[in-house]
Amino acid sequence: MASTIKANQFQDFNGNSIITSDGAGNLTTQKTNYPAFEAQLGALQAVSDATVTKIEFGVENLDTDNCYDNTTNYRFTPTVAGKYFVYVNMNLNSSVNNTCQQAFTYIYKNGSQEHSNGSSMQGSPGTRNDATLCCILDMNGSTDYVEAFGYVDNSSGTPRIGSSGGSTFFGAYRIGS
Known about the structure:
With 177 residues, the chain is mainly β. 0% of the residues lie in helices and 50% in strands. The protein has no helices and 14 strands. The chain has strands at 9-11, 17-21, 27-29, 36-40, 45-46, 53-54, 59-63, 82-94, 100-109, 112-120, 128-139, 146-154, 159-161, 169-176. A hairpin with a 5-residue loop joins strand 2 (17-21) and strand 3.
């Protein structure tokens, strides 16, 4: 024999709502991954050769709490303390084929390098390198901020970040307290 329990809200012992229902079968949980953002590079960004450079992710795909500055500092400053999953993918390249010797992606927290990923291709230079980097960072919800930087070392041509395919993006979202 089957039983039916009807409720529009489940609460914890302190009366805090855990799950609510709108009566049509749609559930809302109180666990949110906010603040969250994702931005992409709007156009190729020329950078100085062999220089770590902040990347100007100016096109917002998502910014739930207006915590990402896409016009001035190009940084994410979440207003809720917690652990954040941070990710970045960069297309690092040269304007001249087979001259890209080194290409790296960096995540900085509060102006200091936290993580990096990339490759050195000095023995066999290429034209481009896609470098992806993911990490989990503790953020205090008031002053901590995160930024993305890139580095391209070319033997000739103009070092650049980005491509026409939108493969250069940066984002973060809260995963817990």
